[in-house]
């Protein structure tokens, strides 16, 4: 039996309309939409060596060091996929993964790593079984598998902008896999939008995203949140098609603050924002009003701030960040072209 290898890079993504709350198994309680990033990537390779143990056998290396914590997570996921990939019992998998960004930096590493993992699995499946689906079907299945591994990872398999979840205005939208937004449906100003991530706190979150999703099950405002997210998504897609920057900023910032308001009003409540997060939000609004540059912020489930702005203002915005916020580490990124299959 031959040895096989597959390698992919896959990007993280930053949600504009947030996915928060889910049903079994990894079904979103509301639809979402996200920018696919360019530089914030996971690079993952799998070597599949013949093995006669007839059990799932994995060695997982993160940045060249054996990592048992991630290994357990991956083995647990793979054990649910034996019907789809029966050959997993015939191979020993040696997985190497690394990120281009630091862990706990406000960039969703599970989205990039789990999408890279499933893209590599599907590439191995093609080589081992000889079955090669059409590209559209390949990425559709990759999105579904990635979603099952880590919800928002399903959006990372597509370039630029991707929706996930059932959306009234989109006939083929689905809770099972993400859908790319066609470039012609997005004003060119958003095609290369910038995202500068300001690191307020790189430490471990006090409450995990998984726990946060669970708390939505009994949240007193859950249904109102889901309805508002659907409304905001419809508004945002129209605004991005029309190049309506005012509405884009309103929706993106509302979604960021609403995400954290749900955390603060859950039972039990919790707060992930830091005093510096609030200071940065105020400074961003002030800069926008004074300089008339359409910057805005979004925040994932953590304290770090994603500063979004058109590429034409890159020099001015990054100069401002360097002069006024030198005490913070800043990661500069922009909208990207999606995953890449690496050839040896």
Q: Short summary of the structure?
A:
By secondary structure, this protein is α+β, with helices and mostly antiparallel strands. The protein folds into two domains: 4-184, Ribosomal Protein S5, domain 2; 191-334, Alpha-Beta Plaits, CATH 3.30.70.890. The protein is 36% helix and 24% strand.
Helices and strands in order:
Layout: E1 4-17, E2 22-23, E3 27-28, E4 32-50, E5 57-62, E6 65-66, H1 68-79, E7 91-99, H2 109-129, H3 135-149, E8 161-164, E9 179-180, E10 194-199, H4 209-215, H5 222-242, H6 245-264, H7 275-291, E11 296-299, E12 305-309, H8 314-324, E13 329-334, E14 340-342
Parallel strand pairs: 5-7
Antiparallel strand pairs: 1-4, 1-14, 2-3, 4-7, 4-8, 5-6, 8-9, 10-12, 10-13, 11-12
Helix pairs in contact: 2-3, 5-6
Strand portion, in percent? 15-25%
Number of helices: 8
Low-confidence segments, given as residue ranges, are none
Specify the biggest β-sheet.
8 strands, mixed
Order of helices and strands: EEEEEEHEHHEEEHHHHEEHEE
CATH architecture tag of the largest domain? 2-Layer Sandwich
Account of the 3D structure:
With 344 residues, the chain is of the alpha+beta class. Helices cover 36% and strands 24% of the residues. The longest helix is centred in the middle third of the chain and has 21 residues. It starts with a strand and ends with a strand. The model has no long low-confidence stretch (mean pLDDT 95).
